[in-house]
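I have been asked to look over a protein record a colleague put together. Thanks in advance; the entry in question is below.
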Amino acid sequence: MIFGLSIDGIPVSGFTDSNTNGLKNEFMTQFGIVPTAADHKGSGVKLAWLRTLKRRMQLDTALGRQMYVKIHLLLLFGTNLFCDKSGMTIHWKFLPLLRNVSDIRGFSWGSTCLAHLYRALCRESRYDCKEVDGLLALLCIWAWERLPFLAPVRSHPSFPLACSRSGIFLQFVWNPYSPDHIENIVVPNDILQHRLMWSAVVPLISFECIEWHASDQVMR
């Protein structure tokens, strides 16, 4: 509801090998180019190099447009959905999932974002942690939905909910996604049809990161 990401589909998983050979082979296979030693840090590809590569993409062929979309998604992962504390790189482990453009929509990206955020919050609760990473925009907007006295007033009903904030009102909302709260928002059917899964108690998977979606512990 917040970001419009599917919570149903194929688990986002695969190899997380930090060996740079896998990184180079995958980039050569999909883009015909290999990042130099200066363009990656271990298993993380530098976002600056990806931005340069994206600007140089030729969009006059279907293959060129597909490569452009893949790079755009890697940048989206590295700057928003799965960003790390450096904000400079994205792990190459996501790249094999983008081999077939038509299959990208089949993955459960929503549950993966939650797993990544839950793991990040777990790490950041430690006394020796000094920085925060993860999908903090999701956490912020979730708090606005639950604690609207902290939030900008919704300017107009829209989907995803992250697009419709602009002042202040007071109360705590226990069930912000009930029909009476979203009746004026046109939610795509491919999101709405999974509403019974929103409160499911299930493991959330993001490669080596597995966290429980323990909704029964935080709902009335």
About this structure: The chain has two domains: 20-106, 135-217. The first helix runs from residue 20 to 31.
